[in-house]
Amino acid sequence: MEVAVSTYQVDSTQCENYRGEGFVKLDGVFSPHQVRLYERAVSAAIEEKNNLQAEKPPNSESTAYEQAFLQVMNIWRRSEAVRAMVFNETLAQIAADLMGVTGVRLYHDQALYKRAGGGSTPWHCDQYYWPLDGDNTTTVWIPLQDTSLEMGALSFSAKSHLVDLGRHLPIGEDSESIISERLATMQLAQVENAFKAGDVSFHSGWTFHSARRNTTGSPRRAMTIIYMADGTRLKQPENDNQLADWQQWCPGAKVGEVVQTPLNPLLC
Ligand SMILES: O=C(O)CCC(=O)C(=O)O
Description:
Layout: H1 12-21, E1 23-26, H2 32-49, H3 64-68, E2 70-73, H4 80-86, H5 89-99, E3 104-114, E4 121-124, E5 137-143, E6 154-157, H6 173-186, E7 190-192, E8 200-204, E9 209-211, E10 220-229, H7 240-249
Antiparallel strand pairs: 1-8, 2-3, 3-10, 4-9, 5-8, 5-10, 6-7, 6-9
The protein binds 2-oxoglutaric acid (AKG).
């Protein structure tokens, strides 16, 4: 695959916005051409595992999670082209600059494809799932086409990383109802924007976010990469999902020690 190149650098205002609001949307990090290359690489890798054409649309018996998206993780280990995307130093440097740290490691990647007609992504924060100490974690959300709100562009609750609105809740019907009620009570601003191909967003592990259902006739394809500051330690898991994450994304890491297994390479 042609190597996609970007030299995007964040400025101090964007870093302040990220730290104050818990997320930042960055426009034009990649060219539409680069995004097309990425889309092909990610879709090809997913297609090998899941027959996207034969994917059954979610039905009323599916959970909110199943209705929200098709999720495929750590694709970098199966596809050279996706590995190049996940190891992209520009993205890793942006993650480090936003968090104000000198280096970042990979936690894992994941493709999140919301089918045409797919359900909404319930409100949640990601770090509920991660057995990681500290706050220096961030996810880049990379839509792989122009993405309207109707298609399921990611939406954020501004400043929600600073308050516990339901950090103990896994993604699902309960997280949606409990967190949306608390967000309304606290009157935190909900920020929703369409993304052009090439725009990306970064959100902190504690930022609450969601996406609308995909009411268009096309799938919403997105790739994400989760970064943690180099030096992040494993904490004693606090729920079964964190225990499962430990085994899957950093097997062999020890509680209280820095997470640096072969699955967690230094990216910058
Ligand atoms: O793509 C989505 O709808 C959800 C994304 C998400 O929850 C995440 O990137 O942490």
